[in-house]
Structures are given as structure tokens and as C-alpha cells.
Specification:
about 725 residues; alpha+beta; Chitinase A, domain 3; 5-stranded antiparallel β-sheet; 23 strands
Length: about 725
């Protein structure tokens, strides 16, 4: 068990908690002359023995396993497994995953999680008015929207009805306001964009907020009510479709149908599930007893939620009620109160990572990196690039011209064609193509069957002559004294280039420059994680060693045992008495519906009836009154066969509500299982033997020296 735990620690540990790093970290042992620190052994030991006392005996036992582990890693290193591309790629993949929590502001992220959890304990009902902004507003757009939202707020604060202002001329830009007057119903944390949510929770009931800007535009929010969180509920429902647009007779028929269903459920004539199958118009749930997924506030229409949460006990059934979708009957199946922080922590972390809150932590983290790494920029040298970068930078993938190159005469002609090509090579798009050229004038290309040419795109990309000839070596920013030049920035632009709408070059360069700086700051921080965080360095070492251990152990033990059929057969022949059948019983087992059937079967057996003839006779009037099972069974497989001795019919035995007796033919004494049947067990044992032999070889090959006083200093 400890061996498996040690291997698993290297491969599967995801805990990122800080480990104490002693001021002095002495060498605990050397493996082939390579030092292993006390902190490395102690971290893995305590991770796998969290609740156990640290004793001399436990340290000695674990050290023996740890030495085997380190010997295998050393052998993998000597075999060069740490240099192959597969290893490097796999380790880099793990590193990217493990680095993510270190590339955000973790303290702020924790605070946002706590804030979201506190808000989840309360639900807010609010109305809003929206003044939209374009996705890329100008200062004039922003000012006009601000003036409009402030004018609307003044009307509401001055006493006008909020819903009328929202739905009136020049009111809310939210399309749903025409129907709901801006009423959003009840909501809780993580259901609205973060700035909106924050203002809604901060505004007292009955008050109208100051304008708040989101990615949609400017809002004013009127908070109508606040209440404790309801939790979540799971219900089944029966729905009869009926809308205001239906004819009166159709509405009456729907009401009659739902009342009939309700009456049959309440009387017990039909179960709720059967009634849902028979009556409900909801095709998605009627075959499942009407069962809906568990939901909380804001997931269903409000009137439906109110009826569902109004049921007091599991199993309670509502009276029929109407929503805009029709008539409903609801049965409460399960209720869950608001969760604890620990219960919802993982979900909160995931949701916040996808929420606009993530941008808050990212900006804070990047701002801190700028300070920590003494960031300095040179905006004039960034703006200077506008003189050399032209608008072709917005035309990634656009074919500007084609050159037709004759293979024989090497003559070149140019045409504008809009042809599409298959692949990109060294910055040009090319594709071999046979065409016929009659005239070699630029404007008039015609075809003859005799001329074969190669079509090659001549793309005048944004790296024009100005870019190529300019000395773009001036720094655009620096971090910790390391400078990034204008050409570094242009290389970044090329790597990120995509086809997009034209925009002012100064604005384009400014936006891309901010992204360039952010990406380089994160890359710089990423490269220093092992230096800044000892626990990350230790974790990466565990993963590195674990991958090496797994790969070499697979080669030397696991896969070898499966593929080495000769070795497996040899091992089996030498150890076949380790894989024995227990005592077994060769029997016919008669399972009878009751004692009367057993008596009937025994009588027919005396008349030499057996097999199909016996089954046909007994099951003639009642199918499955008798089943017969024949074979060789152990007492583990058929416990009621225990301690059978003499051949012949046994007494009746009660088994699972039926009557069983057996016809014992012989007792089969223990004997080795054939390899085909015991292959799994034999392979596992052969793997254990291979590993023991391998470890013995490694211990002989690589010297190990342990500092006992350092080992026993761990407590």
C-alpha cells in the first residue's frame, strides 16, 4: 500500500499548499553521488502519512521505499528518458496546469470567492433601465449615454413610475422592458454581470442607484426587495399547455384536463409519475415521471418557483396553478438549503474564473507584477511605429496578387485572380497548378493548352520596405532591466495578426502594446515560479520524477510482463502451485419455486427425467418454476455447497426465497489453475518478481549513502 502511495504522490499530487522551507536544508542521502535534501523526503513522507505519528520505525520503512523510488528515477535519467520530446511535452503540459493558480492574485481571488458566497445567502429583486453603448464607444458616445441615463434617473427620483419611464419613449434600451417594465425578478450572485451585481447588493431596498456601467452600457437599478436565499429544490411537474392566445373552448379543455389529473393523483388512483406520463404535455419530462433538474432562484419563471418553494415537505403536491405556459401541478421531491462555503468552494472558483471577476484579479496581478519587476515603458517609441506599419496589417490572408511563372522559360506575368490556395510556406501561399497562357499582358491573360505554369501568390504583407529598412531597435518597455524592442513588438504583432476591420493605427498599436506587455509580464513571472515558490519547485520535481518513474517502470515491469510470453510461462511453471483452485463440487443445482416444486422434481429424477425433458414437465403450467445449473463450483461461488461430502441428492436448502437442492457427482480436490484462467494473477505476480529483480540490480549498480542523523531529525 505504501509503495502505491509513493508512486501516486509523484504522479497525482495536486495540492499547492505552502510547505515550510527550513533555513538549513541538509542532505539526507546521496544516490549515485547525487544529493537528496531532507525537505524533499520530508515533504513526500508527510504528504502520504498525514495522520500518522513520526517514529523511527516509520521513517526507516518509508526511506526504504523512497530509495527504490530514487533509484528508478536515476536509472531513467541515465537512460536519457528526461531528454526525449514525449517526456518534455508531457511535463510541460503538467506545468501549464500547475502554474495557473500562481498566475493570478490568489488573495484577491479568495476574497472574491468569499464575497460571492456571502451574496449567495441573499436574493435581490430589482428593476433596471439600460442606455446602450456601442462595443467600441467614442468619448462622444459615452457622454451622450451618460447624459441620457442621468436624465432618466432624475425623472424616476422625481417621482415618475419606474416601469413607465422604462417603457416610455426614450426609455430603456433593454428589449425585454416592453413586457416587464424593467423588472428582472429575483437574482443572486453570479447571475448578473459583476458591476451590476455589486451595485444591486449595495443599494438599499426602495432606492435607485447611481448609474453603473457594464459591457452593455449604463444602467440605473431600483432595488425592490431582498430576502434570504431559498436554496435549491427538485420537483416533478405535470404541465397542460394553455396560453392567452388560445380559444376559450381550448382554455376550458386545458383546465378540465389538469383538474382531472389532479383529482386522480390526490385520490391515489394514479401515482404522480403515471399521471405525468398520461397527462403532461412536457415531452422532455413526462416519460420520467415529470421530474425536473434541481433548480434555485432565477432558473424558472417566478410564479412556478414560488409554488415549488411553497411546498413544505418532500412528497407534497400543489393544487393546479397557471403560468404563461399553461397549467401545472408540482410535486416536491427534494430540498437542499443554502450550501456551506466548503461545499460550494470548487463551484465558486470555477464560476469566478469564467466571470468578469476574473479580469479584476488579472488586472490586479499584472499591476503588482509591474511594480515588482520595475516596469518602465517608452510610449514615444511605440507611437513611432505608426509611421512604418501600414493598413495591410489588417489584411491577414488576403491575396493581393498572383504571379504565373512558366517552368520552361522562367517568364513571369502578374494577374489579379482571387484564387484560393492550399497551404502556406515560408510566408507565401503557393500551390502547383497547370494553366495555359496565351497572352502575357498584365490585363489580358488567355490560355493555350501548351503552356504549363506554377501559380504563386505574391503577398505584400505589412512588413513592407519601410519596416524592413527601418532600424527598429529602440526599447518599448523593460522589466527588471530586460528591454523589449520595437522589433520584438512587431514580431508579436505578426504572431497575433488576424484579419479584422481597419481602425486608427495609434489606437490599434496602443491596444496591442498593452497585450504585448501583459503577455511578457506573465511569461517572465511564469519563468520564475520555481525560484519564487519552493512548493511549486518541489511539486514540479515530483511530477518530473513521477513521469520518469512511470515510463521506465512500464518498460521494465508492467509492459514487459504482458509482452514476455516465454518469461511468463516460465514463471508460471515455477510457481503454478501458488495459483490453486479451492475445493470444488461437480453438481447439478435445481432451483425450485417452492417445496412442492422440489418434491415434484425429486419424483421425476427417480423416473430418470433430466435436462430439457425435466424442465418441460415442471414448467409446463408455471414458467420458471424450475431452473437447472450444472458445473463445477467452489463454496465461494455457491455458499450453500459448503461441506458437501457424499455423492447424491442433498437436502432442500432455502436460498433467496426459493428451495434449492443439488445432485453432487464428485468433490474436486485442489489443483493448479491453468495459465489461461489465472493469467491476470500470474502476470501481477510476475510483475512483482520483475520489480524485485530490477530493484536488486539497481541497488547493486548505484551506491546509496544515508545520513541517519538527518533522517531522524524529522519530527
Amino acid at each position: 500500500m505504501m509503495k502505491r502511495m509513493l508512486t501516486g504522490a509523484a504522479l497525482c499530487t495536486l495540492a499547492l499548499g505552502a510547505m515550510a522551507q527550513p533555513a538549513a536544508d541538509p542532505t539526507l542521502m546521496t544516490v549515485d553521488g547525487r544529493p537528496v535534501s531532507r525537505s524533499e523526503f520530508e515533504a513526500i513522507y508527510k504528504k502520504n502519512n498525514k495522520d500518522a505519528a513520526v517514529t523511527k520505525e516509520a521513517l526507516d520503512e518509508y526511506l526504504d521505499l523512497f530509495i527504490n523510488y530514487k533509484l528508478k528515477v536515476r536509472a531513467a535519467e541515465e537512460a536519457g528518458l528526461d531528454t526525449v520530446s514525449k517526456f518534455k511535452s508531457e511535463l510541460e503540459g503538467y506545468r501549464r496546469q500547475l502554474a495557473r493558480p500562481y498566475l493570478i492574485d490568489r488573495s484577491l481571488n479568495d476574497n472574491l470567492m468569499q464575497e460571492a458566497y456571502q451574496r449567495l445567502g441573499q436574493e435581490v429583486r430589482a428593476s433596471h433601465i439600460l442606455v446602450q453603448l456601442p462595443s467600441d464607444p467614442t468619448p462622444e458616445d459615452t457622454l451622450a449615454a451618460w447624459k441620457k441615463i442621468m436624465a432618466l434617473r432624475a425623472r424616476v427620483v422625481g417621482g415618475e413610475d419606474f416601469a413607465k419611464v422604462a417603457t416610455g419613449k426614450g426609455g430603456s434600451d433593454d428589449p425585454s422592458a416592453a413586457k416587464n417594465g424593467g423588472d428582472l425578478g429575483y437574482f443572486t450572485a453570479l447571475q448578473m454581470v459583476y458591476p451590476f451585481e455589486t451595485v444591486a447588493y449595495a443599494t438599499p431596498v426602495g432606492q435607485v442607484s447611481q448609474p453603473v456601467r457594464t459591457r452593455f452600457g449604463y444602467h440605473i437599478i431600483k432595488v425592490v426587495d431582498k430576502r434570504p436565499a431559498r436554496g435549491e429544490i427538485k420537483v416533478a411537474h405535470i404541465m397542460i399547455r394553455s396560453t392567452d392566445q388560445d380559444a376559450p373552448e381550448k382554455k376550458a379543455a386545458a383546465e378540465k384536463k389538469v383538474q382531472e389529473a389532479y383529482s386522480r393523483v390526490k385520490s391515489g388512483e394514479l401515482s404522480f409519475a403515471d399521471a405525468a406520463l398520461k397527462y403532461s404535455d412536457d415531452e422532455a419530462t413526462n416519460a420520467k415521471g415529470g421530474e425536473l433538474p434541481m433548480f434555485g432562484t432565477g432558473k424558472m419563471i417566478e410564479s412556478f418557483e414560488d409554488k415549488a418553494f411553497g411546498l413544505q415537505n418532500d412528497g407534497d403536491v400543489s393544487v393546479p396553478f397557471q403560468t404563461p405556459y399553461g397549467w401545472h401541478i408540482v410535486k416536491r421531491l427534494e430540498y437542499k438549503g443554502p450550501p456551506t462555503f466548503d461545499e460550494v468552494k470548487g463551484e465558486l472558483k470555477s464560476k469566478i474564473a469564467r466571470d468578469s471577476r476574473a479580469e479584476i484579479t488579472r488586472k490586479k496581478f499584472l499591476a503588482d507584477l509591474r511594480t515588482e519587476y520595475h516596469y518602465k515603458d517608452f510610449p514615444k517609441d511605440v507611437k513611432a511605429l505608426a509611421k512604418v506599419v501600414d493598413t495591410t496589417i489588417f489584411q491577414k490572408g488576403t491575396i493581393l496578387s498572383d504571379t504565373l511563372l512558366r517552368k520552361d522559360a522562367q517568364e513571369t506575368v502578374v494577374m489579379h485572380s482571387g484564387l484560393k490556395y492550399d497551404r502556406e510556406i515560408n510566408g507565401t501561399i503557393e500551390k502547383g497548378k497547370s494553366v495555359n497562357v496565351r497572352s502575357r499582358k498584365h490585363d489580358d491573360i488567355k490560355l493555350l493548352p501548351t503552356d504549363t505554369v506554377v501559380v504563386r501568390d505574391v503577398q505584400q504583407g505589412w512588413r513592407n520596405d519601410k519596416v524592413k529598412n527601418a532600424k527598429l531597435t529602440k526599447p518599448v518597455f523593460s522589466i527588471d532591466g530586460k528591454t523589449y524592442t520595437q522589433m520584438d513588438f512587431l514580431d508579436y504583432l505578426e504572431a497575433k495578426q488576424r484579419k479584422e476591420a481597419r481602425q486608427p493605427m495609434d489606437k490599434y498599436l496602443d491596444e496591442r502594446f498593452r497585450s504585448f506587455v501583459d503577455d511578457q509580464l506573465l511569461a517572465y513571472e511564469d519563468g520564475r515560479l520555481e525560484q519564487k515558490y519552493p512548493e511549486f519547485k518541489m511539486l514540479m520535481k515530483e511530477y518530473r520524477d513521477g513521469i520518469l518513474l512511470f515510463e521506465l517502470t512500464d518498460q521494465k515491469v508492467w509492459s514487459k510482463a504482458v509482452k514476455d510470453t516465454v518469461g511468463l510461462e516460465t514463471y508460471y511453471q515455477a510457481h503454478k502451485y501458488d495459483f490453486m483452485y479451492p475445493v470444488r463440487y461437480d453438481v447439478d443445482i435445481y432451483t425450485c419455486a417452492n417445496a412442492d416444486v422440489s418434491k415434484q422434481v425429486r419424483g421425476l429424477l427417480k423416473k430418470s427425467k433430466k435436462g430439457k425433458e425435466l424442465l418441460d414437465a415442471v414448467n409446463k403450467t408455471k414458467p420458471d418454476a424450475l431452473t437447472i445449473e450444472s458445473g463445477v463450483f467452489s463454496k465461494e461461488e455457491k455458499p450453500f455447497l459448503k461441506d458437501l461430502g457424499l455423492p447424491g441428492l442433498t437436502a432442500d436448502m432455502p436460498v433467496d426465497g426459493k428451495v434449492v437442492f443439488a445432485d453432487l457427482k464428485r468433490v474436486v480436490q485442489p489443483e493448479p489453475k491453468p495459465l489461461g484462467e489465472a493469467r491476470g494473477l500470474v502476470t501481477a505476480a510476475y510483475q512483482d518478481q520483475l520489480e524485485k529483480d530490477w530493484i536488486k540490480e539497481l541497488r547493486a549498480k548505484y551506491p546509496v549513502k544515508v545520513e541517519q542523523d538527518v533522517l531522524y531529525s524529522i519530527h
